[in-house]
């Protein structure tokens, strides 16, 4: 029963962090370089003890743009973590880490290649 409780709590925190971090980046991070960027929170990996969270972001654009956006978000990490602490009721706000998630881009490329194969272009 304990494992089920731990899983559901971790999952609830994961979902809340996805929702809140997305909102924080959209509304609270005041950086003009992010104004026209498409940024999505694709997943959050939360440790069982809820002390650490790895937040995966997807950024539409070239690798240089993705890297720049990740750097900007890293600069805002203390403010983002503080805002998470205000929005999600927990004993301790998790230490957060951001990582690029290229799975959407890879999926799009695979679909493009499959389309080319089906048309006999490859």
CATH superfamily annotation: K homology (KH) domain
CATH level-1 class: Alpha Beta
- Major beta sheet, strand line-up: 1-2-3
Helix content: 40-55%
Order of helices and strands: HEEHHEH
Q: How many individual domains? A: 1
Summary of the model, kept short:
This protein is an alpha+beta fold. The chain is built from four helices and three strands; from the N terminus they run αββααβα. Helix 1 crosses helix 3.
Describe this structure in words.
This protein is α+β, with helices and mostly antiparallel strands and 122 residues long. The protein has a single domain (2-118), classed as 2-Layer Sandwich (GMP Synthetase, Chain A, domain 3), CATH 3.30.300.20. The protein is built from four helices and three strands, in the order αββααβα. A three-stranded mixed beta sheet has the order 1-2-3, sandwiched between helices. The chain is globular and about 60 Å long.
Main attributes?
single chain; about 120 residues; alpha+beta; GMP Synthetase, Chain A, domain 3; three-stranded mixed beta sheet; about 55% helix
Layout of secondary structure:
Blueprint: H1 2-27, E1 39-46, E2 52-59, H2 63-75, H3 77-87, E3 95-100, H4 103-118
Parallel strand pairs: 2-3
Antiparallel strand pairs: 1-2
Helix pairs in contact: 1-3
């Amino acid at each position: 029963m304990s494992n089920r409780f731990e899983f559901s709590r971790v999952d609830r925190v994961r979902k809340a962090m996805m929702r809140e971090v997305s909102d924080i980046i959209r509304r609270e991070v005041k950086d003009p370089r992010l104004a026209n960027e498409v940024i999505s929170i694709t997943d959050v990996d939360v440790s069982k003890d809820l002390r650490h969270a790895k937040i995966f972001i997807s950024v539409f654009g070239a690798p240089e743009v993705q890297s720049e956006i990740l750097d900007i978000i890293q600069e805002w990490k203390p403010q983002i973590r503080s805002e998470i602490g205000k929005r999600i009721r927990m004993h301790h706000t998790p230490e957060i880490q951001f990582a690029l998630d290229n799975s959407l881009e890879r999926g799009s490329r695979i679909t493009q290649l499959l389309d080319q194969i089906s048309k006999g272009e490859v």
